[in-house]
Amino acid sequence: MNENLARRFTGIAGTASAAALILEVPLYFVYSDEPPASNVLSRILIGLFALAALLLFVTGFRELVKRVAPEYEWAGSIASAAGLTYVAVTLVSSGLEAGAVIAADRPIDPTIAVDGTYILYGTIGRILLALFLASVGFALHRTRALPRWTSRAAYVLAAVNLAFVPSLFFGNTPADFYAANGWGTTALMGAILSYWLLAMGVTLLRSARAGR
């Protein structure tokens, strides 16, 4: 994969992931109380497509860094490892949540599975995403593969994600902003990530067209 192809591949993947997340996030705010199973399963399904595209994005980013500045391939590898781990952890939490929703009308306690997703969606996800974004910011800053604002934006988002790491100490009520699975910790962070991915995807595609 040459540099131009890496830019195009990563840009398309980032844009696709952003589009899926932009469709998913509003579903968190449709109901003020406990949402029906159809709502939860719909947003999980859309989220799975977003995660699949994100997996391609982090893989393509590592390849781009390798092509632009081989001496910083290690930074791209850290970003890729953190991103892939984030995808894996979120897939597990999505599977647990979907399984609990499907089994809610059966003689088992669905809260056993759902309770385990709180820290996966929240604190663990925020730490992994912060590491991913910080690594992306460092790699972009050093390689200058994209405009300077992209690295700064990644650093800012990494700091925002770190700010939500202690949310596990503030309960697990989805209606609360700052909680283990509060709408700020999960839905808001997903929305911010989606628009960052969209900006990155568009910038990468434009750089590919420019033949940079």
In short:
Helix content is 75%, strand content 0%. By secondary structure, the chain is mainly alpha-helical.
Question: In words, what does this structure look like?
Answer:
By secondary structure, the protein is mainly α. It has one domain (3-209). It starts with a helix and ends with a helix. The chain has helices at 3-24, 37-68, 73-102, 111-143, 148-163, 184-209. It is globular, with a radius of gyration of 18 Å.
- Tell me the structural class: mainly alpha
Number of domains: 1
Largest sheet: none
N-to-C terminal Cα separation, in Å? 15 Å
Query: Mean of residue pLDDT?
Result: 87
- Rg, alpha carbons: 18 Å
Which regions are unreliable across 5 or more consecutive residues at pLDDT < 50?
106-113
Shape type: globular
Question: Helicity, in percent?
Answer: over 70%
Tally of DSSP β-strands: 0
Q: How many distinct helices?
A: 6
- H-E string: HHHHHH
As a percent range, the share of strand residues is under 5%
Keywords: Membrane, Transmembrane, Transmembrane helix
Protein name: DUF4386 family protein
Which helices and strands appear, and what pairs or packs with what?
Layout: H1 3-24, H2 37-68, H3 73-102, H4 111-143, H5 148-163, H6 184-209
Organism: Actinomadura graeca
Keywords: Membrane, Transmembrane, Transmembrane helix
Protein name: DUF4386 family protein
Keywords:
single chain; mainly alpha; 6 helices; globular
